[in-house]
Amino acid sequence: MSKIHILNCAELQPYFPPIKGAGTYCLLVETNHGLVLVDTAMGLKDFSEPTPLMNWFLHSLRIKRDPETTAIRQIEKLGFTPKEVNHIVLTHMHLDHAGGLADFPWAKVHVHRREHYAAIHRQGRLAFGYLHTHWQHNPDWVLHDSTGDKWFGFDAFQIIEGIIPEIWMIPLPGHTQGHCGVAIQREGRWLLQAGDCSYPIRSGDRPKYLASLLSTPIVGKNIPHIYNLIQENSEQIEMVTSHFI
Ligand SMILES: [Zn+2]
């Protein structure tokens, strides 16, 4: 029986804007290919030996430097061994998503080819959020391109053919050049991790045009499409984001 665990790997309490209730969410999925971790948040070394950029990030978001909150420690607490994490899927490679890669150096790391290129070459409006030390250990990358497959009308590709539950990556560029949402089958429905490309949207919500407009420089232009997706398929899709559930 496959299961999805939602791990909050860091509470965010920024001074400005004074956002309440934000976290840093990773998903741990039990599959027939071992454990799949969707995003890694910050890793052990980010807390013990932060680079100046990470130090600034942790400080400005008032993140507790508690190793117990890292994905690897939470996975152990759930009773798994970290070596069971065979695959990592990254929505994108910003420092609060890829920081834990070095804690799982044996894992295959699935990412959109465009995102990998943008991170390595520091391209894009928010390129300052990439931290090269996070992939200094030379991860076992699996770089994905679009295949022509669709998921609810969106371009999409599966991370592994035949994986149960199905796990699809959905390119939703804007926040970064190769940002992807990740959709995981759950009890006949879907859990969509929209990463950093949307604020939370629930079925029945009214469209927030102003919020959508104001957040476009950060999240990109996908919100209207995601909004329609959730409204039209509310029975089948539940959405979370990397920082709000
Ligand atoms: Zn980001």
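^ zinc ion complex. The first strand starts at residue 3 and ends at 8. Residues 92, 94, 129, 175, 196 surround zinc ion (CB under 6 Å).
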